[in-house]
Each structure stands twice: as C-alpha cells, then as structure tokens.
Write a structure and sequence with these properties.
The complex is a heterodimer of chains A (about 100) and B (about 290). Chain A has about 100 residues and is α+β, with helices and mostly antiparallel strands. Chain A is built from 2 helices and 5 strands, in the order ββββαβα. The chains are: A alpha+beta (about 100), B alpha/beta (about 290).
Chain lengths: ~100, ~290
Amino acid sequence: MEQIEFNYPAKRRIRKRAHVGVVGSGDLEVLLEPTEGQVARVFIRTSVDGFRDTWKAVLDRFFTKYDGTVRIEINDAGATPGNVQLRLEQAVEVSER
Amino acid sequence: MSNEGYSASFINRQSFIELDARERAKALFDAGTSRELLGPFDRMESPWLAMQGVTPQEDDGCVVMKGKIAGQAAVIVALEGAFQGGSMGEVSGEKMTATLDLAAADNEKGIRTNAVILLETGGVRLQEANLGLAAIAELMASILALRKHAPVICLTAGTVGCFGGMSLAAGLASYIVMTREARLGMNGPEVIEQENGVEEFDSSDRALIWAIHGGEQRYATGLADALVDDDTPQVADTIRSFVSKGVPLLHRSSQVALYRTRIAKVDTSRQWDPKEFRALWTTNGSNKEKR
C-alpha cells in the first residue's frame, strides 16, 4: 500500500461533504469535506504501488476544472484512472446537489 | 432494441443485489426515517489492515442505520460484500455487536426495536484472525440476547452469500430471507474441495454449488424462511412482514431434537445428491424444482 499527498490552490467555499464508492476490486472510496483556507488537500492510500505519476496526472486534470477548498481522502483498491476521474466527479456532484 | 417477448415486470424490476450496503440498508426502512450511525466520516476504520498493506475502508465495510420499519423502531447492519469479501474484523464486528446490544437495551426499556442484518460475508477477516473470531462469538451472544425481545432478521441477497462463522450467526437469526442468487453455508465450496478433494465437492460446478448452498434449496429444506426475487420492493415487503410477525414461537436453532432426528436419517456412507436431500428434508412446499 502506498500513501500519496497532493495540494492544489483553491478558492471556492463548499457547503456539503460527500462520500462515494467502495474499496472493492477496481473501485475506490472518495471522502470530500469542506475546509478553510486557500488550498485543496488530497490524501491517497492505494493498494497498487508505483503509480504516483498517474495519480498526479489524473488529479492535475481534475483540478483544472475544480476549485473547491476541500480535503479529499481516497482509499483505492486498484481503480483505473478513468474510474478515479468518475468517482471524483461523482463526489463533487453529490457535494453540490 | 425491442423488448418484445420480455416480461415488463422483469425489465422494470429494481434490483436489490446491484445496490451497495448503504443503499440496501436505506431501501428497507420506511421512506425518510433512516439515519446512519458511525458513518465513513467518523473514520472508524480497521487499525490492522494498513499495517499489512491492505487499504482500509472508512466504515470498515459495515453500515449501521437506525429508523423505522413498518412503523416500528429498527436497526439495520449491512456488510459490504465488495470490501474484503464482507469479512468480519475487529471494528465491523464491534459495530454490529454494539448495535444489537443497544437495540436489546432499548427493548428492555420498553422501546420495541427490531434488527435486520444484511450478511454478504465470507466470515472472519483473515488479516484480523482471532479478533474476527472473537467478534463473531460476541455477535452470536448479542443475537441470542436480542431475539428474546424482538426479531433479528437475516437477509442474504447475494452475490457474495454468507459463509464461515457468519453462517452460524445467520443460523441464530429469527428469520432468514434469501434470494435464488444467494448462498448460505458453513464451508464454502473451495474450502471443501481443498480439504476433501474434488470427488467430495467440485467447486467449479456452479449448478452443484447452488443446488446445495443456494437460496432455493435452503428455503425448500426449511433452512431459510422466505425466498424472494432480486426485487427491492419485494425484499422490503418481506422484511416488513417479518417485523410485523414479531418473535417466532420457536426459533429454528432451538429445535435441537428435530434436527438431530433429521441428521440421523441421512446415511453418510454414500454420496447424496441435492434433490434426494430436498425430498428428505422438504418443509417449505413442493420438493420439485421451481423452474
């Protein structure tokens, strides 16, 4: 298991937290919570080691569109980058519903 | 694509099996009455998995909810089969046990509180070994304490099914509800094959597995109390009917003499097939295959 952290600049306040997904094979769990400050912090725990660059690419792309000041926690059981992207978008959708 | 020739009721069916543990629990309560306790944001995860390089889940694969079923207070504990095979660890076990104990305490105070346990589990979580075994032992004691006051209803919908020590916990429930897709048994097919050889149990033979462990066989032989379709409203209706029915006059697991007599009639010197066994043990309706 590998732990990875990223920070991104953020400015928009978020009202609601969101939880989506399951730590099942090929899937992941995302916990998204509002925080203070001007930063979005991402904490990842993944069962597949050695994919830091891939995680960075997925999150870099996600944060080109998302600017919420949040703490995102990801528990991953080997989801594909596409799946990660979808779960993140789902979490945002739930938090803004 | 034309749906001609397909049954509309099948096409419009709301699958229960496709729901995750949280959605399953919510679907069984009276609409708008449920709330989750110790949810993922409470971060009650297993302290043992990360040490062994396994990614934990924030609710430890165990969803606890409180609300009303058929207008009565109820708790539901649902295991998430997709996380570590729904296995019981220290945290998930304690969540389930504490929930049933609090429900028992409420019953003792005169607040009738029913319990539904949704078991999709292979039993003890191997990474937590003895703690998982202890959790199941405690859970069984808690089911026995609660079922005196209010029904403890076990639902195994599939597709994981309910195996290992948790099948014993299921056996103590007041009522067991299964789908055709679900399986219930102490030793899973692969364990039996590994220990006694392929002649004893061919774990690649799916028809054989379901003929022995499947919901239809369990229902026909009286080891389950209801057989439901993979249909959310039907599952919820069935749970409501058992809540309304209350505590059974006699629990299945109290009928020791009956089951001793039945087991004594089985000649273990030869191989039985599931159909013969059904004919010998049939209690729920016909011993013929439903389809």
